Amino acid sequence: MTGAELDDDDTGNRSVGAVPRAVLEYVAREIVDDPDAVVVEMNENRHRVDLRLNVAPDDMGKVIGRRGRVAQAIRTVVRAAGAREGVEASVDIVD
Questions:
Q1: Which of 18, 20, 34, 48 could be disulfide-bonded to 82 (CB atoms 3.0-4.6 Å)?
Q2: Residues 6 or more apart whose Cβ sits within 8 Å of residue 82
Q3: CATH number of the domain at 13-94, please?
Q4: Where are the domains of the chain?
Q5: Which value, in Å, is the radius of gyration of the alpha carbons in the chain?
Q6: pTM summary value
Q7: What is the pLDDT along the chain (95 residues), one digit of tens a residue?
Q8: Rounded Cα distance, 94 and 91, in Å
């Protein structure tokens, strides 16, 4: 393969769900007071990625938001990132 052919094949060594996971981790770290406590666990299938977000107990309210609006916004953004990669992504916020 030539260099141009390698550039056209962007599915290379990336794991399924890497983009939604990176988006979730970035957004969560920007929202919370203790970004070092953010842990994202990933369970991947062929076309589906289940992400579990763990944060410090004191930051749980910031991640969920009033009436769950922040949590819903996070889920929407991560779902969109997954769709761009061709996978269905879901987020579960673990307490």
A1: 20
A2: 17, 19, 20, 49, 88, 89
A3: 3.30.300.20
A4: 13-94
A5: 15
A6: 0.82
A7: 444 444 444 555 567 789 999 999 999 999 999 999 999 999 988 889 999 999 999 999 999 999 999 999 999 999 999 999 899 999 999 98
A8: 9
